[in-house]
Amino acid sequence: MPRARRAVRGAAGAGASARAAGLARRCGRRRAGRVVGCARVIDVPVVLAGAGPVGRAYLDLVAARSRRWRARYGVNVRVSAVRGRRGQAVPEGGSLPHGSWSPLTDLAAVLREHRARVFVQAVPSSAEALPRAAAELHTALEQGVHVATATKTPLLTAWHDLDRAATDAGCAVRISGATGAALPAGDLARSVLRGFDVEAVEGCPNGTATFVLDRLADGIELPEAIAAAQRLGIAEADPTADLSGDDAATKLRLLAGLLWAADVPSMRVSASPITEATAEEARSAAARGRRLRHVAVADSPESVRVDLRAEAATSPLGGLEGPDKAVTFHCGDAGAITVRGGRSSPHGAALALAKDTLATALDPAVGLR
Ligand SMILES: NC(=O)C1=CN([C@@H]2O[C@H](COP(=O)(O)OP(=O)(O)OC[C@H]3O[C@@H](n4cnc5c(N)ncnc54)[C@H](OP(=O)(O)O)[C@@H]3O)[C@@H](O)[C@H]2O)C=CC1
Ligand SMILES: N[C@@H](CC=O)C(=O)O
Question: What is the CATH number of the domain that holds 209?
């Protein structure tokens, strides 16, 4: 999709930021873990929406790693405000405050007050949360604030609007957290494989499905397997989309949007769900030395299908251990390129959001792609 890339705050600022980071790396002298000397540091104040497992993991990660990122990349990430469903708070020493939160105020005002550079979103990927989640992304972009999101639903419904709003604002919308947590499939699709003319993409991008299928093969009942995935923070609070194949299809739709400028909202989805009846299939595959997998495939920008497939235990998908994930890009002359790992977990999603937060300062980009 050809597009004029406007050099406004995000792009010009990010170019300068990248140069500043290079300068920081060249000039910085590390002493007792601190950058000293002539280092210039890019300040990245963040407003975080969502204080569930993923949001809290992001806060913890920033608290634990910000000094390292400052020394290593010349970027100072700090969460200056956190917003939940009804309240908001200023972190104390990098953690959520123990006391009560104040009532929510206007997001635009909060972004301005904190001079936010990035709006990080980690609210539920649910129909109920969608209207506010979508509206808040637009508010951030209108304020000239970059976005890093793990929330999938607004991307599915408002892909083009968000891309347009981000491009107009000269801001980036980074979606690694929504395309498979710490699995860097989104980066491959968005930029790394550019020019390889990817013909098809397939994989197991849902950690819950792989985890549950292996438990079924072990003879564990479906409800027990789902409960274990929820205890580990892999499955969504409502695991329906994990098991129906919708979450895997969503991730492939987002990858297709990044790869091919696919019309994400209108892509057709067909999926065979994981049900009680799947247990027999999983055990039968195991008896043949194979492993049942929920495999999502997009071989055109029009559609995604998710099927149960018995994979050889030595293949990239069969060899997976949930909640790890794998995605293979079929790249014509470059062959099949598989990325694997990046487990689904709140910490994995937080790592993806952190990577994307750093990228807004270090790798200039505008829009979704
Ligand atoms: N767990 C994982 O492995 C991964 C998760 N993700 C995605 O990350 C996102 C966050 O996940 P998780 O932390 O488990 O989410 P939760 O369901 O625990 O919700 C997180 C937060 O969202 C707030 N919230 C709830 N409803 C709304 C609403 N309608 N509008 C605005 N805010 C709302 C909650 O506020 P309050 O506390 O006030 O109720 C809470 O702070 C999800 O979209 C998920 O799909 C992505 C990759 C991996
Ligand atoms: N529930 C999802 C979490 C990340 O998107 C999964 O199981 O992969």
Answer: 3.30.360.10
Residue of 56, 79, 120, 123 best suited for mutating to test ligand 1, as the one with most atoms within 8 Å of CB: 123
Nearest to 362, CA basis, from 22, 45, 3, 52? 22
- CA trace torsion 94, 76, 117, 171 (10° rounding): -130
* Domain membership flag for residue 315: yes
CA distance 279 to 158: 37
Q: Is residue 25 in a domain?
A: yes
Q: CA torsion sign, 309 to 310 to 316 to 320?
A: positive
**What's the complex ipTM?**
0.96
Q: Is 33 annotated as a binding residue?
A: no
Per the domain annotation, does 2 fall within a domain? no
What domain range is 273 assigned to? 189-343
Indicate if 209 and 150 belong to the same structural domain. no
pTM of the model: 0.90
**To test the ligand 1 pocket, which listed residue (60, 82, 85, 128) has its Cβ within 8 A of the most ligand atoms?**
85
**pLDDT range class, residue 39, cuts 50, 70, 90:** low
Q: Quote the Cα angle for 117-121-124, to 5°.
A: 175
Same domain, 223 and 263: yes
| Contact by Cβ (8 Å): 205, 184 | no
Q: Which strand ranges, in their side-by-side order, compose the sheet holding 102-103?
A: 102-103, 87-89, 75-83, 42-49, 118-121, 146-149, 173-174
Residues 226 and 136 grouped into a single domain: no
Closest ligand 2 atom to residue 178 Cα is 5
The ligand 1 atom at the shortest distance from the C-alpha of residue 87 is: 38
Q: Is 152 annotated as a binding residue?
A: yes
Residue 237 and residue 231 in contact, taking contact as beta carbons nearer than 8 Å: no
What pLDDT, in 10s, does the model give residues 206-238?
A: 999 999 999 999 999 999 999 999 999 899 889
CB of 339 closer than 8 Å to CB of 185: yes
Please tell me the least confidently modeled range out of 88-92, 93-97, 348-352, 364-368. Answer: 93-97
